[in-house]
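Input:
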Amino acid sequence: DAMVIQNPRYQVTQFGKPVTLSCSQTLNHNVMYWYQQKSSQAPKLLFHYYDKDFNNEADTPDNFQSRRPNTSFCFLDIRSPGLGDAAMYLCATSRDQGLQETQYFGPGTRLLVL
Amino acid sequence: KNQVEQSPQSLIILEGKNCTLQCNYTVSPFSNLRWYKQDTGRGPVSLTIMTFSENTKSNGRYTATLDADTKQSSLHITASQLSDSASYICVVWDRLAFGKGNQVVVIP
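Output:
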């Protein structure tokens, strides 16, 4: 059974047109993460939520925003996608932020910007 | 400079053979190093989690080692299978510092 679900799996948007990526989890985990992974690159953490507390990485562009309306759902909003934002976006969860906590990843949403 | 460097970048091995992937890191101190397997087009899946004090951790045919003195970790795959074809990512958990991955292709 899928535990971390991302929709859609593939998203095509136009340059400058806002887009929202969705992540949901059935694990009731406290922490949810959003990563950006470009081709042949390591995943790059954009931000994460610990419960309702939002933690933004220092180098995450303002163009990227996130919302977590409840425990199960977390959204990634890209306000004005540029060509350089084309990437795989990975959502992950962990029960807590402890040292031995396992991080569970969703299948990712691949974003294409035309 | 990336805090986590992995080598080789890519590797082709015959089914049934063993292989070893390397991870060198500069993050220090740290408490937790992980290896993930990422199939093409999928999210990463955790293979091993090692604390600073552990030297080795196994998960089936996957064995990870850690040498905190030399700041190196390795992932050994025994008797490779076609399903092992994937990218293997080393992560220093405390900093969420990801390596770029070792791309492994297993051929029959």
